[in-house]
Description:
The structure is a homodimer. Chain A has helices spanning 3-41, 49-79, 83-117, 127-149, 152-182, 187-219, 228-238, 261-267, 269-272. By secondary structure, chain A is an all-alpha fold.
Amino acid sequence: MSVDGITHHISSRYNEELQRLVRSVLGMGGLVERQLSVAIGGIGEPDDEVIVRVARDEQRVNQMEREIDEECSRILATRSPAASDLRLILTILKTITDLERIGDEGEKIAAIAVRLAARERPRNRYRELRTLGDLVIGMLRDSLDAFARHDTELAISVLRRDRIVDEEYESIHRQSITFMMEDPRSIRRALDIMWVVRSLERIGDHSKNICEYLIYLIHGRDVRHTQIDEIEREISALGEPHPAHDWPHGDEPPGITLAAAPAVLAARPGAAAE
Amino acid sequence: MSVDGITHHISSRYNEELQRLVRSVLGMGGLVERQLSVAIGGIGEPDDEVIVRVARDEQRVNQMEREIDEECSRILATRSPAASDLRLILTILKTITDLERIGDEGEKIAAIAVRLAARERPRNRYRELRTLGDLVIGMLRDSLDAFARHDTELAISVLRRDRIVDEEYESIHRQSITFMMEDPRSIRRALDIMWVVRSLERIGDHSKNICEYLIYLIHGRDVRHTQIDEIEREISALGEPHPAHDWPHGDEPPGITLAAAPAVLAARPGAAAE
């Protein structure tokens, strides 16, 4: 085998490792998404199975976090990645922490969801909670899709939605306080609703974090703690993505990069429910 | 200069970079600690300055997170760290995320702290809140000290304290519900107390995370999602720390490693208040 051949061979194996890593992150994300759908779907439903299912997924999510973490360490140690590959690994390390914490929130929601079923139901049967839940699941799903497709616009749309979540959160919060004051017997239920809403708001924040990391990955720009309008201005001023942004390490042109992505997306557990 | 001389020169510059990085993390941690002390000290005190001070520190904390993040990327790209140096960088990357989120919680506490001052005070003047606050600040401080001194025992003691925080959290929570039910006029105040307690509980979790990363750094063992008793068994079964655990990269014996640590600790803003 020629030296060129060997180099190509190594580089394509390296590329495969990165692709596999990306698929694992998307797989973990899909699992968290499913966990969340089950938890939110279970709000007010008298079905203990919800807790069991969410807890089972939680264990798997934790295990995947460890595995991906280890794989990132291994690649850092053996491949000494630079430029966009390094940013990809760093993005993944941060992303999985947020995914794992979304899973934690999902578990909390599941526990409260089932507890709510034991209480007298409000007339609207938790409609606002489900609406907010769907909004937040959408943010998580889109942040994963944005990650898979390297889609800055989708990522920015997730950042924008965070404000809607905050407004919705404030509104349900105020409403719950009113209910409590009008009828002290509703205090426990109103508190449970508040905890769920707080968890959902956190999940929105975590999804937003994932999108911010992604913008760093694509544009090499750290946009945490930056106002959304400023982010948009910055990104459009940057024009084309950062030269070293290619998806796993620069063999393919942007746009049609990560050939595995559509298949990966279809294979994600969450996709089946769509 | 001989080849040996050059190698030594490079290695000692590298070592300096790692030491500087560790000092930055401790500096950031000290700032977060101060932020938290101000926020908790402000509970029920009618002093708007608290919000201003905490917000000012928050900006600096965010900036430090970015700087340390960038420095980690730079070292990864230019030094291709391996073994314990790599673990150090990964530990730092995770630690600063938790520190930054502790800062966020501090900001939330400060806002509520001042709001509580405008309400009628309970007879005990928020004694339980301050007690829990001190417990949690102690956890943060000890997790930073454990990090600075590579002290597994101290790290484990922080993990143990998390259970006390959870119990305290549950107790204040139950008490608040009782107050609400007895006197609906106390609902808003009780809710504010609940939010503070929830934030404190989160800060305990973040401190625990930092200690878990530290155990990974010292022993090469990922102990997240592991029961505390199991962690202690594992650590004592491992006996001596992981062979590649030395503190920045293996020039010094364990125990007296990180010569700069005591000075660094003394220089931390939080230390002055001790």
